[in-house]
Amino acid sequence: MIIDIHGHYTTAPPQLQAFRDAQLARLADPALPVPRLAPISDDAVRESVENHQLKVLRERGGDLMVFSPKASGMEHHVTDRATASAWAEAGNDLVHRAASLFPEYFAAVCQLPQTANSPLDDVIAELRRCVEQLGFVGANLNPDPSGGHWTSPPLTDPYWFPLYEVLAELDVPAMVHVSTSCNPAFHTLGAHYLNADTSVFMQLAQDGGALFDRFPGLRFVLPHGGGAVPYHWGRYRGLAMRMGLPDPTVRLTDNVFFDTCVYHQPGVDLLTKVVPTGNVLFASEMLGAVRGVDPDTGVAWDDTKQYVDGAGLSQQQLQQVYEGNARRVYPRLDAKLTAEGR
Amino acid sequence: MIIDIHGHYTTAPPQLQAFRDAQLARLADPALPVPRLAPISDDAVRESVENHQLKVLRERGGDLMVFSPKASGMEHHVTDRATASAWAEAGNDLVHRAASLFPEYFAAVCQLPQTANSPLDDVIAELRRCVEQLGFVGANLNPDPSGGHWTSPPLTDPYWFPLYEVLAELDVPAMVHVSTSCNPAFHTLGAHYLNADTSVFMQLAQDGGALFDRFPGLRFVLPHGGGAVPYHWGRYRGLAMRMGLPDPTVRLTDNVFFDTCVYHQPGVDLLTKVVPTGNVLFASEMLGAVRGVDPDTGVAWDDTKQYVDGAGLSQQQLQQVYEGNARRVYPRLDAKLTAEGR
């Protein structure tokens, strides 16, 4: 089967954004009433995905999408913790409803109610709620909740350890995914996302694997093909050697994975050539940052299955990239599929 | 001939760092005397490059290196403008001495005395001094003088226009190159450098070419193979199309260039495959970030000539990458070489 591990609910019914707008309005004017999410019918949830993610997934031959709230909408830069919690809950609940309406097509991943440098107890509580009560199979972790100002410590800092303990206990991976950039130097989709992937890989490389000595079961997925990393694979190997650190392209293989959200054939060719096949997970982030069709090839930019199919992998490698790796990195997804006889 | 457009004076005699240390000490304690650079003999300058950059350049078959002060040492995050000016002058003067002692092997590029969000008159004065009086052929421009906090406006902002007027008037390109990161989230060599290249390309893409409508003669060189950009070539094309902007991979070709500082064969293969050959300039940044030899291949990480030679380019394309493009992008270098009958 073909599992797309990177999809966002970019097409949520408008009540969700109206709720967000009301949250932000109340932060500006605390005299306003506490906002509530207006009712959304099952039909509205169905319709919001049926003609979008689900339609495209089926058309392209995919079987299941790992589905989470819209990444740029997480907006962790809004510093009020109660607002962050209510917003994450609303988004996660809606993802849960979509996944429950189409259980054969979606597995849910949660947004965490992060705010920069706050204690992580709200974050952990929401993670537990989503995984233990709602059956989510992973989480999105933002290494820069400030939104482009990068005021948080590296992901190897003990600040993050309480969260890692719970991720390891629950045996769910975290996709390292930033949200909207509030810094005009960084375009959200064309710079901030890629910079985050690059920066976090180097944080982990600098750490020499110590984080994963402490948390052997912790697993990070780097989206967008790992930012600049595979293109600079030699740079990372050479830097580590010069710094007397283990080769990160070897040391991190049990814990760090790359998705295939790279939107042209030569990019996916490079990714699948340099990154070990066991560390590449199929993904499209479709109906995400880049929509439309490449006029030169007639292929939709985010139809990454075409690039993966064209990358010259063996059948065994394709099975790993399309299914095997995802089931290994997301064991709760594997358990769900196994229980369904898939 | 083979021109390496990206070399730094990473091996300067120790008097230079002693001067810098004294500058920083005086900023901490203004009662200290105004520091002066201790005398450095011509022999010391000769020796500092003869057995390093020059030796390696010759061994690898290179003919000329475009040479500038050490990038991580620019330290534009030190906010005192007088200190920045004295530091840039000292570094540029020393580069000038090395270039004057080996005029057949070096062409000089200057460090600018930037500090975040200051007026640019010191920067422009030093640029003019270096180009008009010392014969420099280009400048290094730091898009983030804060050193990893990214407090400056994008390079498309009118803040930078006074500098661009002078770059265009003098007909010298700017290599977009950050310096040391003071942000623990960004490793200088493994994240900050690449993020800067990526971010600036997107700043220019977002601008849709308006900057180059205003300054048609302005030319930027993106180092380190353009960060994440060629690997995500499709992403940039698709994003621009979605945003109703011109395709940046076409629109920016007269003004934006990529060097070949990518330290493995698959990376250089990708670069030369997706970026038009007229926009790729040979460079190694050797004796820079990544030193030593890849144990898997026996090739020095930064011996990028091996990768370029192995990328399957035609003789005509190799001539462009090794020489022709550099002479076009750096017309003052071309004039110097032409005057020498080269």
From TrEMBL, chains A, B:
Stored Pfam families: Amidohydro_2
Keyword Transferase listed: no
InterPro entries membership: ACMSD, Amidohydro-rel, Metal_Hydrolase
UniProt key word Chloroplast: no
Keyword tags: Lyase
PANTHER family cross-referenced by the UniProt entry: 2-AMINO-3-CARBOXYLMUCONATE-6-SEMIALDEHYDE DECARBOXYLASE (PTHR21240), ISO-OROTATE DECARBOXYLASE (EUROFUNG) (PTHR21240:SF28)
Full protein name: Amidohydrolase family protein
Lineage top rank: taxon: Bacteria
Domain (Amidohydrolase-related): residue spans on this chain: 3-331
